[in-house]
Amino acid sequence: MHILIVEDNPLVASGLKSGLELHGFTCDVAATQAQAGNHLAASHFDACVLDLGLPDGNGLDLLRTWRGRGKDLPVLILTARSSLEDKVAGFQTGTDDYLTKPFDLQELALRLQALLRRAAGRASDVLTLGDCQVNTATCEAWRDGQAIELSRREWALLTALLQARGRILSPAQLHDSLYGFDLDVGSNTVNVHVHHLRKKLGNDTIETVRGLGFRLGARYCAHAA
Asked: Could you tell me which residue ranges the Response regulatory domain spans (predicted)?
């Protein structure tokens, strides 16, 4: 799951990125409204963690602009502003959740998981894919009742396809979901992870659409939705 962190404090941003990546997320950081806009224009994100005190304006203004343009990206405001008035303003502007600093990283990860589950229209984190079950919140998977070990990148690939719910994702889109903007890796890495995931979950879990990219196998899309 690809998360945009909009936070101008480099220490806080670095801690958020490192901590969320330990929970299986792929994260990119923007320190300003302008950088956040550039990131959204360049890649797909599944959710945004948004600070309010940004150097080029109030984060609520950025959120208001997104909602005015019809952008339905799930947003969690993460801020030191804890008054009821601030929370009301956040929700009235269009945030999906609001968490105040200081915060517990595990709680933040769980709230993001809940946002993504609701965005996908799911009531449960546990999904059945043929003879496999996956728990997107705990990053656990089973096949025929036997636990399967998936790497962090394999989880990122699987959750990106689950969030897409049958839409085709290009190799470039999947690359961003797996690595974000920071890593310069080989052009064949997505294909390698697709191959490994098929070996673990079954060949028909991921469908190749020649010349376009990959999508979740057709018979699994109803379960992903």
From this structure: 2-116
